[in-house]
Design goal:
alpha+beta; 5-stranded mixed β-sheet; 2 helices; 24% helix
Length: 79
């Protein structure tokens, strides 16, 4: 299935793009993250990220389906 993945901050820098369409066999957000992490060697792990599916925060074990928009959100700092 194809899903849209969006990246921000350090993940965006690592991937070199803000988003991409991904062909995956992953059944959950955590599986998708691990597949992409093998490709990109992300600087953050799931303990330091939140996941959003179709603009709603979800648990990492949430199932994904074709055409979902998945966003891996790093912590935000600023002031």
């Amino acid at each position: 299935m194809r899903v849209k993945v969006r990246y921000f901050a350090a993940l965006r820098e690592k991937v070199g793009a803000g988003e991409e369409m991904v062909e995956t066999t992953a059944q959950s957000a955590i599986e998708l993250f691990h597949q992409l992490n093998k490709r990109y060697s992300f600087p953050l792990d799931t303990g330091h990220l939140k996941v959003s599916i179709n603009r709603h925060y979800q648990d990492w074990d949430c199932r994904i389906k074709a055409d979902d928009e998945i966003v891996f959100l790093p912590p935000v700092a600023g002031g």
